Amino acid sequence: MTYDQILQELKNKKYHPVYLLHGPESYFIDQIADHLEHQVLSESEKAFNLTIFYGKDTDQMAVTDVARRYPMMSPYQVILIKEAQDMKSLDKLEAYINNPVATSILVICHKHKNLSMVSKLGKLLQKKACVFESKKLYDNQVPDWIRQYLQSKKLKIADKVAALIAEYLGTELSKITNELDKLCLNLPPGTEAVTEAHVEANIGISKEFNIFELQSALGEKNVLKANRIIQYFASNPKKNPPQVVIASLYGFFSKIYQYHAVKNLPEKELLSTLQLRSAYFLKDYTAAARHFPPTKAESVIALLKEYDLKSKGVGFNHTGKEEGDLMKELVWKILH
Q1: End-to-end CA gap in the chain
Q2: Inter-residue contact 193 to 158 (CB < 8 Å)
Q3: How do residues 89-135 score in pLDDT, each as one tens digit?
Q4: N or C of the chain: less Cβ packing under 10 Å?
Q5: CA separation (Å) from 315 to 95, 249, 286, 308?
Q6: What gap in Å lies between CA 286 and CA 277, rounded to an integer?
Q7: pTM across the whole model
Q8: Consecutive H or E run containing 14
């Protein structure tokens, strides 16, 4: 089942005897588990009917003993196994899963990695349980997820600002939601849209000195602007690690190179091929392609691979030379 389908069932008070929540993205697992922990039972019912186990500290006998009990003064009891990936005897729950108690809701939270669904336990869970696989979002999916999250809080956000947040915070949704929640709390009353100024003030991403502005400056061959931004990056290495900057530039120049091969496609197909959410971002690649023909874009990509290795200490002696100097050198070579 999908995340939305499960949440809808829970809101409608439709419960399954066994849930398997597994996968590398912990955010969705936590959200479903939190709902089952806090919304199924009333506060008075929780005292006798809510049991939380941690995989590292429990075994199948303890879980089964609780799960086979009947609830007290409640239609259900809820049993959560958190960090189930650390439970050594997890596979020994097969006997219970094969014949669960209808008034017990057993929730197996197997985080950070998938449970093998070709194992005996995995096959049984597919037949007997509500199974949810929590997948990581791809980089290009995160801005849209940010927009939808803020939309649920009655806030709008421009594509560029959402992309800026995604680029800065990465794909870890728990980290992103923490930052967005803090931002929302600090917005002035009556705010309808999140702006770059809000992001700079509350998340710490400079609206003037960020990776998108660096990409734009390089694409336009704006030497002064590019040098000012890379100087700022060099002065703030923890906020702008060379490896992250290089990876972003690699993606940018890879799309410039790809753009030359598909630039005659209709706009909708072009956006889909380049994995761009809107035509707003397309203009940067159109402008950059004029300054970086295919051979030049290809040489920049090779340069980025070389400096990625250097930033990790491969073929580069860091003695007497800071990482910031390495990035300045890289930008100079791209521009010249």
Answers
A1: 53
A2: yes
A3: 999 999 999 999 999 999 999 999 999 999 999 999 999 999 999 99
A4: C
A5: 56, 21, 35, 11
A6: 15
A7: 0.74
A8: none
